[in-house]
Amino acid sequence: MRIKKILVLGSLIILVLTISLAFNSGALGYYPLPLPGVRLLASWYLYTTLNPQYPVFTAMSPEAVTAIVWDYRGLDTLFETAVFFLAIVGALALMRGISLKVVLDSKNDNSDGGLSLICKTATKILVPLIIAVSASIALHGHLTPGGGFQGGSAAAVAPLLILVIFSVYFLLSKGVSEKPMLVLRTVGLLGIYFTALAAVFIGLFTGLNAYVFQNQPKFNAPVGLPAQISGALISGSLFFFNIFEYLAVAGGFTLVFILLSVPEEIVKSFVSGETHG
Amino acid sequence: MVEANTFLFNVFLFSLFFNVGISLYGVFVRPSLIKKIIALTIFSDTANVLAIAVGYRGWPSPEQPPIPPVLIGVEPSSEDLGRFINQAVDPLPQALVLTAIVIGLAVTLFLVFLTLQVYRLYGTTDVRKVAKLRG
To answer: Do the Cβ atoms of A65 and B91 come within 8 Å?
Structure first.
């Protein structure tokens, strides 16, 4: 056992020193870090992220990170959403057969449960604020740092607070249970799907060339989503992607948090029928 | 004469590599699944910080620090854009890290569920005991 630990430790030390040596001898192509400038690709992104003089290159968003996430490298983000979707499907599959109705019915005493009155009052004030701030993060994602993922994760904090400070029974009795969250998540994912295909649909109806995941008009594909609506910059598809990702992430995380807080005795009674194997 | 900024940046990078070593040690050696998950999150966070550090740009002078990759106005002139390109940090690693964080969160949630299920079925999260089970 001791020899094994020493071997692991020694190989890790060698790994750390090797990575350091690689960086030291210019593994990233430049030395020393930090680089005095950015790479050519980065300066292209920075130059075209909001540049009305070059309408066929620009993403029409002043926030370069959101422009990369949903426009330049939009397919990356689509598959990342797929990974997120699959992880939550996996969690749901592990908790299959557990109905939240049973959880709600299993509450036998009439006590309120949860933490003290001070905590509950503070939470009642905080939860609307958290929802408002998360919505603002998501809706301004194409203008300021933030976006659908960040907003959705922030919004999922609100049900998590309620779970801890009130109880899972309170949240379920308010209607925040499996089905509405699944619906919210499905609406978000369908919205992402249709936003990705929006330019193609416009192209089909107008007979023009168009691409999947197209935002602004390109050289040989003159259709595109509007960058502004009555003077307000929405950056074409970025605004809609952010909204739908917000719904999907908030719904998915809330669902997982509720499933994680199902009382242990109820889960035991469901999984005890399975054989070890 | 070693420049102070470069030296500090190299210390920062080495501490990140050191962190990678510690977290991998946790993943390999600790028997508890929960501690393995914690070490894994430390590992992914370290990798994210490293990616952000690669995208960072050196400050041309103390009066001209790098700025975030967000344009201030919605109708920039060419001078605005030129200043923006010369000062803003690389946005690409930030976008990649954003996706990595969300995927990491989803994968961590899934691993937590798996560990919970292992605990419910076997009554332990120790991998040595789980590996010995025959069923």
So the answer is: yes
What is the per-residue pLDDT for A112?
A: 66
Place of tokens 């001209």: B64
Contact B119, B34 (CB under 8 A): no
How far CA A174 is from CA of A159, A166, A249, in Å, comes to 11, 12, 20
- CA distance between the termini of chain A: 28
Q: What is the pLDDT of residues A197-226, one digit of tens each?
A: 988 998 899 888 888 888 888 888 888 888
Q: Alpha-carbon distance A179 to A163, whole Å?
A: 17
| pLDDT bucket at A29, cuts 50 / 70 / 90 | low
Joined tokens for residue A178: 């499996």
Q: Find residue A229's DSSP bridge partners.
A: A232
Q: B13, A271: Cβ pair inside 8 Å? A: no
| ipTM, two decimals | 0.81
Query: Helix (H, G, I), strand (E, B), or coil: what is residue A86?
Result: helix
Number of residues that make up chain A: 277
What's the confidence (pLDDT) of residue A277?
43
Q: In 3-state terms, chain B is what percent helix, strand and coil (to 5)? A: 70, 5, 20
A196: which strand partners?
none
pTM: 0.86
Q: Across the A/B interface, how many CB contacts are shorter than 8 Å?
A: 173
CB contact under 8 A, A16 and B84: no
Burial A103-140 (b: 16+ CB within 10 A, else e): beeebeeeeeebeeeeeeeebeeebeebbebbbebbbb
Contact A20 B24 (CB under 8 A): no
Question: Measured between CB atoms, which of A19, A65, A80 is closest to B94?
Answer: A65
